[in-house]
Design a protein that fits this description.
The chain is of the alpha+beta class and 484 residues long. It folds into 2 domains: 256 residues, 3-Layer(aba) Sandwich (Aminopeptidase), CATH 3.40.630; 214 residues, Alpha-Beta Plaits (2-Layer Sandwich), CATH 3.30.70.360. It is built from 11 helices and 23 strands. A 6-stranded mixed beta sheet has the order 1-2-6-3-7-21. A 5-stranded antiparallel beta sheet has the order 16-17-18-9-19. The protein has a 4-stranded antiparallel beta sheet with strand order 4-5-23-22. β1 and β2 form a beta hairpin. α1 packs across α3 and α9 crosses α11. The protein is elongated, with a radius of gyration of 24 Å. The mean pLDDT is 96.
Length: 484
């Protein structure tokens, strides 16, 4: 990245990509930030949650101006392609430039929100940048629980204006976001021995899907690998005797499932009909998603017949429940055209074991800008999964950020963009979750906006960061700071 402008931003981002920072494992990146502050003589504090706050005084002429908080999160979504060997706990991200894009080799890039952290650090260390007093707030675990924002203590921030640098759309100012709540369900089961007979086993795999962010991409018509595979199994139940030995798919609650697989057993006499039905189903899926999912692959291969399978009644109930469980966009906003109001993501299916024995764990994530609708769709998910699962629990959830259309900071940010680029930026709310709602609960006087450079494929190995957009966003941020 040495030759990419703005050099000060990309030089810092390159250092960040070398530091492991999975959600809930931010010890190394938090320490790296503390060391960065010490190296540059910046005041720095770190709290018990490992959140880091840096402070720099105003430059000459800005001493009497109201200060500003630049905010980003230090963790990243860790997704990789199935054929890629990468340990996110210790391996650096392998980056490369492809035209206007910065990408990673087979993994997420971590531009969400590494580039926001990099711009904040570049701003606080730039000797030539005019600005009021700056606080940089870097939080932990934004991606899987907003833990850092939840645990941020009252009174630790001085500024009354906050620029969140965790958005992914060029030329857009976000002034609101959805709230969310996660659901976790468990179906405990016992393994049973296959009855006597002649059997045929097959491994079914769905891969090559785009996946993406369960907030930003949920309305783009993309396939969910979990849904694709369970809907085929539900069809298969209607045709023949079926046993399921394993079922897994997806990874993270805030990522649309890209891959799923199952090991199934059918009567040997049904072997050829199985392939016919599978090919017919593939054609149906192609017709439904082919224009969106260009690289989608559905594969069926023979396997060694397993000796044990999931107890049949529970397996059947689970497949029916997963098919019934809602997924995708539920409603569009009536207040802000083009904004998804409510959605849910059938994120993952995993086979695990605890003190009670074997179980299948289902994770889903619900979002809505309307609090009542967030809980309504959560209840619908619970009702579906409870038909098969013996445990269904919900997380604490997080609040949305109600738009302030009269925000002075929004107007300064809008005017700066128009002055630089000769066009009006869009002012929007976002369906994805941002930490701003939680900050507003602790600091109700905050005037906030969220901006960021253009990224695509966030939360998937297709993640890519536009270099030219990063240049524009950096110029925009500098212009805003100069005019606060």
């Amino acid at each position: 990245m040495n030759n990419i402008e703005p050099k000060q931003v990309f030089a810092i981002f390159e250092q960040i990509t070398k530091v492991p920072r999975p959600s809930k494992h931010e010890e190394k990146i938090s320490q790296w930030l503390v060391d960065f502050a010490a190296e540059h003589g910046i005041e720095c504090v770190r709290d018990e949650a490992l959140n880091v706050i840096m402070r720099a005084p105003a430059t000459p002429g800005y001493e009497n101006k109201e200060g500003v908080i630049l905010q980003g999160h230090m963790d990243m979504v860790c997704e990789k392609n199935g054929d890629v060997q990468h340990d996110f706990m210790c391996d650096p991200i392998e980056t490369y430039v492809d035209g206007d894009f910065l990408k990673a080799r087979g993994t997420t890039l971590g531009g969400d929100d590494g580039i926001g952290v990099a711009m904040s650090l570049a701003a606080i260390t730039d000797k030539n940048l005019a600005h009021p007093a700056i606080e940089c707030l870097f939080t932990v675990d934004e991606e899987t629980g907003l833990t850092g924002a939840f645990k941020l203590k009252d009174g630790c921030l001085n500024g009354k204006r906050l620029i969140n640098l965790d958005s992914e759309d060029d030329g857009q100012i976000f002034i609101g976001c959805a709230g969310g709540i996660d659901t976790l369900a468990k179906m405990h089961y016992t393994q049973v021995t296959l009855p006597d007979g002649q059997w045929f086993a097959a491994h079914i795999c769905v891969n090559g899907l785009q996946g993406g962010h369960s907030g930003d991409d949920i309305n783009k018509g993309r396939a969910n690998a979990n849904k694709v595979i369970v809907e085929f199994l539900q069809q298969l139940y209607k045709e023949t005797e079926l046993y399921i030995a394993s079922l897994e798919g997806g990874n993270l609650r805030n990522a649309i499932a890209r891959e799923a697989e199952a090991l199934i057993v059918v009567p040997f006499a049904y072997k050829e009909q199985l392939r016919v039905l599978f090919n017919r189903y593939c054609a149906q899926v192609e017709e439904r998603f082919g224009e969106v999912e260009k690289d989608m692959r559905l594969e069926l291969e023979s396997e060694t017949v397993p000796t044990e399978v999931i107890e049949p009644d529970k397996a059947r109930k689970l497949i029916d429940a997963l098919c019934e469980c809602p997924h995708g966009m539920i409603a569009m906003s009536a207040d802000m055209p083009g904004l998804v109001e409510t959605s849910t993501n059938l994120a993952s299916m995993k086979m695990k074991k605890d003190e009670q024995g074997l179980y299948v764990e289902i994770n889903t994530s619900q979002r809505s800008s309307v609090e009542a609708e967030k809980h309504r769709i959560k209840d619908a998910v619970e009702a579906a999964l409870a038909k098969a699962c013996d445990e269904v629990t919900h997380g604490d959830g997080y609040p949305g950020w109600k738009p302030n259309v009269h925000s002075p900071l929004k107007e300064i940010t809008r005017a700066a963009y128009k002055r630089l680029f000769g066009e009006e930026p869009q002012v929007l709310a976002i369906h994805a979750g941002l930490e701003c709602g939680l900050f507003l609960e602790k600091y109700p006087y905050l005037d906030m906006v969220s901006i960021g450079p253009q990224m695509y494929g966030v939360h998937s190995p297709q993640e890519r960061l536009s270099i030219s957009s990063t240049q524009r966003c950096w110029a925009w941020l500098c212009e805003v700071l100069k005019n606060l």
